[in-house]
Amino acid sequence: MDRARVAPRPLPFHLLEEITDGFSEERKLGAGAYGSVYKGQHKNGEIIAIKKLHSMPKLNNQQFQKEYLNLATLQHQNIVRLVGYCHETRGEYIEFNGRTIFAENQHMALCFEYMCNGSLDNCLQDESSGHDWKTRYKIIKGICKGLKYLHEELNPPIYHLDLKPANILLDEQMNPKIADFGLSKFFGDERTRVSASAIGTIGYLPPEYINCSLVSNKLDVFSLGVIIIKTMTGHLGYSQSAEMPSEEFIDLVQEKWKNRIQGPSVDDIDSCAELVKTCIKIALNCVDADRHKRPNIGDIIRELDETEIMTQFSQAVTIDPGSTSLDEQDESGFLEVHPHQLRFLFFELNKAICPLLLSNSTEDNVAFRILSENHMEELSELSGVVPPRSTQTYWLVMKKQPPANTSEFSVTLESCIAHEDIADGDDQFLPEVLELTQGNKVHKVTLMAVTSERTRSGVTKVIYRVDAAVPVDHHLTQIDVHPTEPWILASHRRGGVSIWNYETQERVMTLKNLAPTDMMRSVKFIARKRWFMAGDFHGWIHVHSFAMNDEVTKFKGHDGAVISLVVHPSDPLVVSSSVDRHIKLWNWKAGWRCVRKLKAHLNNVEKVLFNPWDSNCLASVGNDNMLKIWKISSPLPVTILDCDEHQLTVDYFHPGGDRQYIVTGSVSGKARVYMQYTWIFSSSPQ
């Protein structure tokens, strides 16, 4: 969905100088033919990319205004957004022919949203390394969507004319955004600044332009084809594609990706491989020497969409070969199933569980049961009734491990429209269900199930036991474990902090009087700085160097006890939460300035935690019964879930594949599990 239109704001040149440290080299992100790009950071923490344009005699006010209007009207999730601009003329003393003279100097800049992952050009590698297939496909599909917007959704259309990996920028989620479109057209008189060609970049220009200077929308399509090939095969892939027949190249690329794609089942790998084949075929059609044979961007999107639908369906369900009725083989069935592949993780020696999400979009009750022809001894029976227009989460339980040579097996989900009397019973798939539903078809779907080998041998046991209490204080309030050293950091009720080596059973450091009149409520290592921090009962945050055994700083962070501290995995950011209901983000490179303040919960914010697979997201829980998911760039939560009771802790869990879960723990001792895809609650098995 396109974003709401927000007009770019005028920014004075002195402000741009200030937030880029005078356009310093340390702030430079890159340079091009028309200007250099700098990273600017406002006092409120907002980061923007500032393209300071070179002075050009033929760049007059009318031309700049026209270009600004072209950029300002573009609103699409795959187009870099213009957020500000500067166009000033100042009288300044400058050096000219060995003399200092007073002259008017024109300053022009275009300010864009900042893309933290840089350009696609910087991360292109061959197919055997770098980003996985799902990330690369997201990039390919996003570029196509952005180009479709420019070519088919604008009137008049815009042709980019210089599409290349360096002009595809990537945000924190690796979403691609097209940048620098239209500049070659705008700065057409400054041709010597780009290349010998009037527009574009050698290697991405089609033969009709090189030979005859012909420009059309098919020029961009040619460039798109080169980008897709390089995204899938690396920088050398395009030249390789020209050295062999198309079908041979398609088979080569598909086979290489099929060998690399990690899938828990053959269906998963085959589905991704089909998308690989479609993408590389599209790319080769895009770089056809005859521009009339190249597809339109709308045709490309449609082909990708159709392939996605077919692969998702084939991956989701396999119809039981015993079904004979056309109604029985209707691809939609009665229930939508998630996940399509069941993964059993053995947390205990002889027991494993797997959540199963069933959605009923019909107006009738749907009865179901799970069968496994060869593994009913290991798999607990599961049956029930899903009410109309509802989603239910069930737990499949394996009572014991299957034979050692069985890592993958199939289960069958049977479902049918149920008589209303069934729903009023004991929620079981009754033996007489077929009699009560005479005339209704039974839909059978085969799901693949796998067991996790990596956790089968794991046995929980005590490895080290450390008495981490100092003599004057036998009450620990919180601990943290160093990621690389064998150390435990502990906070104490009477204001002390200690570090213990759990291998040698010796105390590394003790600070009894870090806050002598206060209780320490939270502690956290900042390993890469060789610091630790501690939050006390009255809202002070203490930062200490364990390498130098010296105080780094301390500051008043909250109006109440600091309950939780967490460190960003890569950026110089610390997140704190408190009984004052707030979450705050602190930047230690900016003198521990608070860069974001979130009024997070109605009462105590008990725990905050960064998502280990998306460090720009964090989760929080509080005693207002709520679980909230946040983007650190936004003051508002992206998801709010009611957990029904006071929550004390939260953690992320990644069992493998592309699934993620959030687990919360409550004061009553109950654990709640939420699926990433829909953040739907899955209760623990009783």
Automatic annotation (TrEMBL):
PROSITE patterns: PROTEIN_KINASE_ATP, PROTEIN_KINASE_DOM, PROTEIN_KINASE_ST, WD_REPEATS_2, WD_REPEATS_REGION. WD repeats lie at residues 555-587, 598-634. It comes from Aegilops tauschii subsp. strangulata (Goatgrass). It comes from the Eukaryota. Residues 23-310 form the Protein kinase domain. InterPro entries: Ig-like_fold, Kinase-like_dom_sf, PapD-like_sf, Prot_kinase_dom, Protein_kinase_ATP_BS, Ser/Thr_kinase_AS, WD40/YVTN_repeat-like_dom_sf, WD40_repeat_dom_sf. Transmembrane segments: none annotated. GO terms for molecular function: ATP binding; protein kinase activity. It holds the Pfam family WD40. The keyword Signal does not apply. This is Protein kinase domain-containing protein. Keywords: ATP-binding, Kinase, Nucleotide-binding, Transferase, WD repeat. ATP binds at K52.
